[in-house]
Amino acid sequence: MSPLPNLQTKGLIVISALATLSLLCTLSLLLFFTYRFIFWKKYYKRYIGYNQYVVLMFNLVLADCIQSLGFIISLRWIATDSVTASDPACFLQGIWLQIGDPMSGLFVLAIAAHTFIHVSLGHQIEHRVFVAVVIGLWVFGVVTTIIPIAAHGRYVWYPAVAWCWMTPKYESMRLWTHYFWIFASEFFTVVLYAIMLIQLRRRIAESSILGEHNSESLRRLKRVIFHMGLYPLVYIGLTLPLAAGRMASASGHSPSVLYFCVSGSLMTLCGFCDSLMYTLSRRSVVLEPEARINSSNKMSSRRNKSSVAHQYGASVDGKGPTNTTIARGRSDSTEEMIGKDGLEMTPMGVVLQHTTIEVTHEAAYNSASSNLSGARDRNSMYH
Description:
- The chain is mainly alpha-helical.
- The chain has a single domain (6-288), classed as Rhopdopsin 7-helix transmembrane proteins (Up-down Bundle).
- 65% of the residues lie in helices and 3% in strands.
- The protein has 13 helices and 4 strands.
- The longest helix is centred in the middle third of the chain and has 37 residues, at 171-207.
């Protein structure tokens, strides 16, 4: 395509600007994660790479970074006032978009599935299984990028309306190596978050009769519901327009260049929105050092016995009731979605319910000779 229409040039300028914003955000977050992975001993008691949510977040941001690199090549088309299949930039743009778009969606789905497994099913994924899944996703992304090249050669990447991607001649290849996985990610992400939203709303309804002392927990639950509704809505809002436009092109009703420029601009925002949304909504896990969180939890538990730190297993003194909730340390995953900041989530079984057992002991005899026996009984009962 040469020369480019004025409308297309303006659209590519917007796409490039937003891609630059997403690239800066994702690169910054990747550098931050990499620094924490290398110098983890300064911030954590154990290797941060065992935190499954952080690893998934790292891979999501990496996929978004690749996608941003693909769209930022549009600067080349603005500079040359053309989109040319023989240009090496066209081949590079096709590869980066082919792997970046679906992998971003698959890792959004992976985070949703990980949260669902942990929160709704109460199951922690084994580390080996988790690593195998992450590696498998990337292998899948590479394979779906190699297949079109192996089948049709380098010119499978071709000027496609506004930028370089897979030529319209290969609609079936477009669907099964790219857009099918984007649609599948959208669908299953919505399903998983919808199930968790229903469960959370049910717990809010059940807990409303427990009195005002649960207002803080209810507030946190409502904030979690907001976040869980926000994740799929943002992802679908950013990715569906472009995917729908490509599918419309396959049916012979191709949208205008303006439509593709607007939908492409939305798609380029995935990196910026994911970096902002997933980081801030769980910042206690992603950003804050472990020592700081532990110290803040200790201070809050001293101030308020009904605090979240207490709910997580802060035991009361030996003279009072014994809390049956198992004491927890820093989570590997998404256990703390309703934490002190209302941003992480506990397993659903301990969100709003405490079970306490009070054990009392009375001496069987009042005589002084029974004191030693009574003391031994007390020791055995509490130890």
